[in-house]
Amino acid sequence: MRILSIETSCDETAIAVLEFQKGRKKSGSFVPPFAEPKFKILSNTVSSQIKIHAPYGGVVPNLAKREHQKNLVPILKQTLKESGMLKKIKNQKSKIKIIIKNSKLFKILEREQELLKQTLKFLEKYKKPKIDLIAVTNGPGLEPALWVGINFAKALSLIWDIPLIAVNHLGGHIYSVLLKENGENPKSKIQNLKQIQNSKNNPALAGQKIKFPAMALIVSGGHTELILIKKPLNYKIVGETLDDATGEAFDKAARILSLGYPGGPAVAAKAAKSSISNFQFLNKFKIKLPRPMLNSKDFNFSFSGLKTAILYLVQGLKKSKKWSEKLTPCVAREFQEAVIEVLVKKSLKAMEKYSAKTFILCGGVSANTKLRHRLSDSLYKKYGNNFNFLMPDLEFSGDNAAMIALAAYFESQKNPPKPNNLKRIKANGNLNF
Ligand code: KG4
Ligand code: ZN
Fold first, then answer.
1. Ligand with the closest atom to the CA of 401
2. Atom 23 (ligand 1): residue with closest C-alpha?
3. C-beta neighbour count of 167 within 10 angstroms
């Protein structure tokens, strides 16, 4: 089974093609290999708009929409080419078929005129690829951006007559941890973290396993959630942020420290520069930030107070003329420490309470090396080798379409898409589990 997936929820335009092996048959009934899918990534293309949004210090929804419109067709072409499925139409008859169906196509893409033009040209020139299912992210995210991907997916589904399924972006992040080459146990992960981080994705059969119940920590630009997954596709939010998301907090801290956008990698890089000699600054300049809700009884988070605290800290030092660039790594490090301490403590507590057998760290912020290390170390200390810790390869920690295809695979095994469902698929910026 081949799935073509489209992701446009934020500032990445992404398309992928994954090929899945059939599920096992058990006493006559189909058993989908939920915990252990066998698949190959035929192609995974991500086009980032970071440079376009950077001057604004954050993602501008209408700019994101415009860029997705421009990029979708070239990215589709590239993805199909890499999967060996970009074939020109030679036969005139099939061209005519497409033109007849065009009236519906015009309706679907009426708000995306540039995309419509490019899509028409593309559909008339290239053959229908050997795809069994099209998947598209329908939320959460920026609605104008989501709609472009959804409308494009609908257009392809209509013209090619391939079923379409809508996928929750957060489910994609959770399953992104399976987009790997080989299974590794937590011990080898700790020892070989560097090697793992540098590993390139080879389009190979995946071998990771999720043992249920699992606990997932999603940390991204828009979300911070602890999710209990009792069985495949059964999600329960057990904790979440009451205000800002982790990635958002990193982005704001970066702005306060004039580190640019996106803030997460910038803060992490600055923090890494904080050397032992910088420690003297901690006491001298009272560089200490709060660990919000560290000891609260629930599994919720709050990062907006931390953002205010870092702002006041920097403003205070500037006012009293004590501020200098030399303090930036130290403050960045203290901020990162504060965030990580809270995330790790609550994660371990949630694991224990729900007797989870696997811990999943995912979402854009899961690219943070310190967070990865700290979670691996803490889990290993507590559970030793009897524990399953999964996190995505760096290549798949940010938004991508491969994770959407994987989530679509699971979803379609449970709830196959209904025919004529195009009208029912809508963008939902606040979609959750
Ligand atoms: O999952 P993602 O790519 O997009 C959303 O769905 O939101 O997450 C993006 C977020 C941004 O806020 C970015 O600053 C943050 O992930 N991020 C990081 C790191 N790399 C990306 N945060 C901390 N450390 C990093 N290394
Ligand atoms: Zn995301």
1. 2
2. 264
3. 29
C-alpha–C-alpha distance, residues 163 and 79, integer Å: 19
Q: What is the DSSP string of 99-153?
A: HHTHHHHHHHTTT-HHHHHHHHHHHHHBPPPS-SEEEEEEESS-HHHHHHHHHHH
Residue 84 DSSP label: T
pTM: 0.91
How close is the Cα of 188 to the center of ligand 1, in Å? 25
Q: Mutate which of 11, 47, 197, 365 to test ligand 1's pocket (most atoms within 8 Å of Cβ)?
A: 365
Q: Is the CB of 149 under 6 A from ligand 1?
A: no
- Which one of the ligands is nearest to 407 CA? 2
Between strands 12-20 and 39-48, the pairing is antiparallel
Question: Does the Cβ of 10 fall within 6 Å of ligand 1?
Answer: yes
Please state which of the ranges 125-134, 180-189, 264-273, 340-349 shows the lowest mean pLDDT. Answer: 180-189
Judged by its nearest atom, the ligand closest to the C-alpha of residue 11 is 1
Q: Are strands 358-362 and 214-219 parallel, antiparallel or unpaired?
A: parallel
Q: Which residue is closest in CA terms to ligand 1's atom 26?
A: 368
Q: What is the pLDDT of residues 148-170, one digit of tens each?
A: 999 999 999 999 999 999 999 99
3-state secondary structure of 309: helix
